[in-house]
Amino acid sequence: MAVQMLQEGQELDGFRIGARLHVGGMAALFEATHPAHDFPLLVKVPRLAEGEDPAAIVSFEMEQMILPRLTGPHVPRFAGAGGFDRQPYLAMERIAGPSLLPLIEALPLPIERIAEIGAKVADALDSLHRQHVVHLDVKPSNILTRPGGEAVLVDFGLSRHALLPDLMEEEFRLPYGTAPYMAPEQVMGIRSEPRSDLFALGAMLYFFTTGERPFGDPQRLSGLKRRIWRDPQPPRRLRKDCPDWLQEVILRCLEVQPERRHPTAAQLAFDLRHPGQVALTARARKERRDGWARTIQRRFHPDHQPRFARTRAEMEDAGAAAPIVIAAVDLSEPDAALQAALRGTVGRILATLPEARLACLNVLRQNRIALDMTLDEQGNNKHLQRLVELKHWAAPLGLPEGRATFHVLEAVNPAAAILDHARANRVDHIVMGARAQSLKRRVLGSVSAEVAAEAPCSVTVVRSRVEGE
Amino acid sequence: MRVAILSDIHANREAFEACLADAARRGAQRLVLLGDIVGYGADPVWAVQRTRELAEAGAVVIKGNHDEAAVEDRGGMTSDAGAAAAWTRAVLDDAAKRFLDTLPMEVEEEDRLYVHADAQHPTRWRYTRDAEDARAALEAVRARVVLCGHVHVPALYGLTATAKIAAHRPMAEVAVPLTRPRRWLAVVGAVGQPRDGNPAAAYALLDTEANELTTLRVPYDIEGAARKIRAAGLPEGLAARLARGR
């Protein structure tokens, strides 16, 4: 395989090669243009000199398999590829924005900025996981930002596509990844766990919060394995003003057992966008690392050593078992039968999907012209009153803390508010009631019909049975 | 070009017709039948007749062990298979048997090898059950891609330049790139008697330009096929297993 490095000005399958931008351990990157593509391009060429790591070849092959199959704003658009029989290359959209790498020069970051970045990266991971791909190398230099603000994941050389052959797994006995961010199960050679990416994101958020890496940067396998039995310092010990909710979220991402992390990236993004609604556990209160007795037990006692396993079937529908469900509850003209029917439907959905979470939503309608008063005629805060009523509606469901969140949105158009909330939070299912025929509905139109028509996800419209019509 | 690859039809007319229709709908321009046209099922006369027409229209047809057993009793079969082979020999006429007898054991086309069973020793009718079997087969031939059947469970194996081999269970409707310079061995599932727990008929579509192989599953009239097996007096197990896909 005599592969020559590309030269500036060279033409390759219609791509005009421009300046060399970067030479890394496994590949070199060039600017490029192509008459058929109206976006800026990047051409990636693997380094395949004699005696180089065979990982470079297989990893390039994996990226060539995976990138053309990905879509959406959170990955670079695929533009072309060449095989190993001639000049191997991969052409893709060049993302204008910077990576997150320069941020590590300015740590620690403000708390709001950490939550914002975390939520955007979690959005990108959710999009990837829903396309059956685990990234397995989430780190600041592999996350770019579009001018519009969306996070873009790059470098799928270590990634795993659940529906395609995994070439990396057979090729190498040692785990591949980036030491500071690699999940424990990945250290142990498991490549099919989407929540490995949540661990890496948690390690990044820890680094952004404290200025220190939670597990350092070990260079040997024994050092990598240490994270399986040794817990990191709680972030608050290194940064006094780290809020409870952020410590909760970060330490949940860094749980050794994947089942104890957030079930999906979408649920993690939801927490980072609603800090006030994060259910706090012992993780939030943790002041120091676990004592030596527990640590020794985890390291040496066979019953306390973590076990990692995952069947393939689970990965194929990653996320489907842990949806975010909105219950949109109308509290302005309470209809007890309809509210009970809505609650019954929501309860049955949650009963079948133990990892689903519920966002109870109410829209406090604002007047189009006049500036609304926040207090009603009796002087009560309307927003707070609605929140109390919303919790009262959900109480019979008997959900534990953390499974349900409560949101009162103030908006002129209820349907638009529900739809915006569903889009921003990557909601999977909206359940809402439809009022029976009424003058108000005839005048204002049906909110549920508009939501059902426009929603980015499934919508269940609940109606109490009308007899005798 | 899109090549439809059908294996282990086993005289199941309903499944064979459903797969041929599906392949036509998906734009298949070439047809390869990897053997075992007959055996187990109740429609051997029709299956051979249809295969002859397809062969005259340009289809590649390979010989399978059940095709061999339909011509002459060679022994070595399970009791159900032996009973079905004896019945098949009784209902096929000489012309049909001559056609089956003259089928080739393997055919090479471009960088592909078509064979019914183990590519290393095609006449021994051995199963390619795991990565090591696949490695032995790939090392014994020069084709870059080997397509075989006989196992009734779809599988895909990729051999690297460093002699590592990756095993993969193909998912229906997912196009898997057969990347170069890697070499690949695909076990195509069965049209007429699937055994991977999914009773739908299986075949594969190879896109030679995109260099991608897609496994497909096609629903067919299982009750109809089973009813005919019972009506022909063939062993009950051969009818019942179609619905289980085992």
TrEMBL record, chain A:
Stored InterPro entries = Kinase-like_dom_sf, Prot_kinase_dom, Rossmann-like_a/b/a_fold, Ser/Thr_kinase_AS, Universal_stress_UspA, UspA
> What's a single GO MF annotation on this record?
protein serine/threonine kinase activity
Q: Which CDD domains match?
A: STKc_PknB_like, USP-like
Tell me the Gene3D superfamilies matching this sequence: HUPs (3.40.50.620), Phosphorylase Kinase, domain 1 (3.30.200.20), Transferase(Phosphotransferase) domain 1 (1.10.510.10)
Under the heading SMART domains, the entry gives: S_TKc
Q: Which residues form the Protein kinase domain?
A: 15-277
Q: Carries keyword Nucleotidyltransferase?
A: no
Q: Which controlled-vocabulary keywords does the entry list?
A: ATP-binding, Kinase, Nucleotide-binding, Serine/threonine-protein kinase, Transferase
| Pfam families noted in UniProt | Pkinase, Usp
Q: Which domain of life is it from?
A: Bacteria
What PANTHER family does UniProt report for this protein, alphabetically?
Answer: MITOGEN-ACTIVATED PROTEIN KINASE KINASE KINASE 20-RELATED (PTHR43289), SERINE_THREONINE-PROTEIN KINASE YBDM-RELATED (PTHR43289:SF34)
Which family is this protein grouped under?
Answer: Belongs to the universal stress protein A family.
Q: What is this protein called?
A: Serine/threonine protein kinase
From TrEMBL, chain B:
Against Pfam families, the record matches this protein to: Metallophos_2
CDD domains membership: MPP_superfamily
The Calcineurin-like phosphoesterase domain covers: 1-210
* One GO CC annotation: cytoplasm
Recorded hits in InterPro entries, A to Z, give: Ap4A_hydrolase (IPR050126), Calcineurin-like_PHP_lpxH (IPR024654), Metallo-depent_PP-like (IPR029052), Pesterase_MJ0912 (IPR011152)
Q: Which domain of life is it from?
A: Bacteria
* Gene3D superfamilies reported for this sequence: 3.60.21.10
Q: Which GO MF terms does the UniProt record name?
A: phosphatase activity
State the similarity comment.
Belongs to the metallophosphoesterase superfamily. YfcE family.
- Its protein name is Metallophosphatase family protein
- The organism named in the record is Falsiroseomonas bella
